[in-house]
Amino acid sequence: MASQHHDQAVGHEEGHHEGMTKGRIWRVFFYLLAITALEFFIALVLVHGGVISKGLGVNIVYIALTLLKAYYIVAYFMHLKFETFGFIMSVTIVFLFIIYLIALMLTEGTYLKGHFSPFPFWPNP
């Protein structure tokens, strides 16, 4: 009985990680390294050097590059790319609801800070 369980566990383990080879791990590592180097180049050379100014455009580029790195980390190193479609969708939908909740709380907090001052001794700046 114990050997049967061991055989099933080994088979499941091998099938679960079938897409991750050493070559793919290194390829994803170098993708992440290149994206990080691009972020540092933008921050230290372009923005700090005065070639481009800080603003919404630079922030959008940073956010896009960070989301791209997050995709590679979650997909390959956390093995989500090799899961079933239903599991991927359930994790994605929960993640989107959490982001939505954070946005709602930030919006509500900003409103309350500007319109509600319960302590007259500590006014809002």
UniProtKB/TrEMBL annotation:
Swiss-Prot/TrEMBL keywords? Cell membrane, Membrane, Transmembrane, Transmembrane helix
Q: How does it sit in the membrane?
A: Multi-pass membrane protein
Q: Where is the signal peptide?
A: none
Q: Which residues cross the membrane?
A: 28-47, 59-79, 85-106
Query: Where is it localised?
Result: Cell membrane
What the entry lists under Pfam families is as follows: COX4_pro (PF03626)
**Primary localization:** membrane
* The protein, known as: Cytochrome c oxidase subunit IV
